[in-house]
Amino acid sequence: RVRNKPVVLILVMRASTNVAQPPYAVVTFAGKPSFYTDKKRPFRQVCTETGRIMFHEVVRLEKGAVYTEGCLKELIRMKNWGHYDADGTDGATRSNILYIGDSLFADLVDAKREFGWTTAAVTPEVGYELEMQNQKDYILVQKTIDTLVDALRVLQEELGPDQRASEDSDVLDKLERLVSKWRDKETSLLGNPFGSVFRARFQPSLFAHSLRRYCDLYMSTVSSLRNYSPEHRFYPEDSRLLSHELPYTDSCGSEDEMF
């Protein structure tokens, strides 16, 4: 359950996606964004044995079948999700529809922004990074970075608000260079020159911000859902972006702390 309502699952993914025992029906080559904007394009059933399109009229979506083309208006009409208006209101904006896609901007942004559906992103990089984060080398690098950053904060707390000597600045500069060196090592452990898709160094990447903005759930593979009951209710962690919203643990500073 999402938002305490029963979930209707829509799975729209690439043709190469292997989905065993689909929850209801699979739509491939939907032709987005025409899938959202067209009003009269019919669904066509795909033969699961030959992969060829069957040109008989599709009057309802059968469980376990595979379809192509179609449009949102036809989907809502066949599923009896309510009256569909030209402005996309009523049945098209139900938040109890869980829409799963493997392309953030091609699949999920319009589903969330235009129709208010609950969205879930399939992001394979999640599985790779979770595996990497559990390796000893990565844990060592991360703990080293945390230790160095904590040392920088403690050092400046000890120095206080007074004017600092050149030797103090030299120590801070050397520690900062060490932090940069270890962050480079952290990036290299991910095995590509661009580092994490979710972070630009220590800041969230544009992809991570968009994932948070447009997706209610994300996972490395759609099979991750098998670990949850169809009646499961998700209670996400409280997302706090600004420093003043985070739990205050540093004793350095005052009520006029700058973030």
Molecular structure report:
- With 259 residues, the chain is α/β, with parallel strands linked by helices.
- It is 35% helix and 14% strand.
- The chain is built from seven helices and ten strands.
- An eight-stranded mixed β-sheet has the order 4-3-5-2-1-6-7-10, covered by helices on one side.
- The chain starts with 7 loop residues before the first strand and ends in a 40-residue tail after the last strand.
In short:
By secondary structure, the protein is of the alpha/beta class. It is built from seven helices and ten strands.
The helical percent reads 25-40%
Largest beta-sheet characterization: 8 strands, mixed
End-to-end distance: 38 Å
List the uncertain runs.
Answer: 1-8, 13-23, 88-93, 251-259
Number of strands: 10
Nearest-integer average pLDDT: 78
Report the β-strand fraction as a percent range.
5-15%
* Number of helices, counting only DSSP H or I runs of 4 residues or more: 7
Instruction: Kindly report the oligomeric state of this protein.
Output: single chain
Kindly report the spatial arrangement of strands forming the biggest sheet.
4-3-5-2-1-6-7-10
| CA-based gyration radius | 25 Å
Structural class: alpha/beta
In one word, what is the shape?
Answer: elongated
Order of helices and strands: EEHEEEHEHEHHHEEHE
